[in-house]
Design a protein that fits this description.
Layout: E1 3-6, E2 9-12, H1 19-25, E3 49-52, E4 59-60, E5 71-73, H2 77-91, H3 108-116, E6 132-134, E7 139-142, H4 151-160, E8 165-168, E9 175-178, H5 191-195, E10 201-203, E11 216-221, E12 230-236, E13 239-245
Parallel strand pairs: 1-5
Antiparallel strand pairs: 1-2, 3-4, 3-5, 6-7, 7-10, 8-9, 11-12, 12-13
Helix pairs in contact: 2-3
The protein binds FE2/S2 (inorganic) cluster.
FE2/S2 (inorganic) cluster (FES) binds next to loops.
């Protein structure tokens, strides 16, 4: 059990955990897009930068192993500047879709932009256009909104085991897509919508149904089968608009099936 200093406070940590998980468990704020507690870390988005005493540059905390005596700082001007620069890069090709995007109100990109960027953009060139299309019977992608964090791709590989999603193209044209003629249509497919940190993947059943800030959320249990997945309802004017899973490590981890929804 190595001891580290997190924001000046000494703590004992599990040496097998990566730094981001430790910071979040300790209540320290570290913005992140590609890391998800139910998936393997990938280090794609670069948003989870922190300062560590044994490195001269800022480090990506979701991939960084802990070591005895390490000192970690999650909030300081240098870290803020790094995150701000990463966010500017992520926003370069992102459209101002918030007024028509179903993710508005629960979007990490919105929240972090509000915190770090203050609504200003220096980008005057033409944005790259990527396709908007159906990926399967229940899921539609807005390619322009995708920040290629690959949470959805990893979910299909690691959890569903079906691997329908992949990243096509290179550089600023990179986007999530399906293989030709093989739509995403597995029994767990809609979890990719829940874990999309921006509004790129949209559940067609919920599309344009409600602005989330008008809805009420209630914790409950899915009654579709005897497993009893922990879920949360999103209700607008007494009408249940969607079900989403609630984490429960003993029952459904972070997921629920499309049948239950
Ligand atoms: Fe660490 Fe994306 S959360 S790189």
């Amino acid at each position: 059990m190595p001891k580290i200093k997190l924001n000046g406070k000494e703590i004992e940590v599990d040496g097998k955990e990566k730094l981001l998980k430790i910071c979040l468990d300790q209540g320290a704020f570290v913005p992140h897009y590609c890391w998800h507690p139910g998936l393997q870390p990938a280090g794609n988005c670069r948003m989870c930068l922190v300062k560590v005493s044994n490195s001269k540059k800022l480090e990506v905390s979701c991939m960084y192993p802990v070591a005895e005596g390490m000192e970690v700082t999650t909030e300081c001007p240098e870290v803020d500047a790094g995150r701000k620069a990463v966010l500017e890069y992520l926003l370069i090709n992102h459209p101002l879709d918030c007024p028509i995007c179903d993710k508005a109100g629960e979007c990490d990109l919105q929240d972090y932009t509000y915190k770090y960027r203050g609504g200003l953009s220096r980008f005057e060139e033409d944005k790259t256009i990527r396709p908007t299309k159906d990926l399967g019977p229940n899921i539609r992608i807005w390619g322009n909104r995708c920040i290629v964090c690959t949470r959805c791709v990893r979910f299909c590989e690691e959890v569903a085991g079906t691997g329908e999603l992949c990243v096509i193209e290179r550089g600023d044209r990179s986007v999530v897509d399906v293989f030709p003629g093989i739509p995403i249509d597995n029994p767990l497919s809609l979890n990719v919508v829940d874990i999309c940190p921006v509004g790129a993947l949209i559940d067609k059943n919920f599309m344009y149904q409600a602005r989330v800030w008008f809805t009420k959320r209630t914790e409950t249990v899915c009654a579709s089968c005897s497993l009893g997945c922990n879920v949360e309802t999103t209700v607008l004017y007494n009408d249940i608009k969607r079900l989403q899973p609630r984490p429960n490590a003993e029952v459904n981890q972070h997921w629920m099936c499309d049948e239950g929804r």
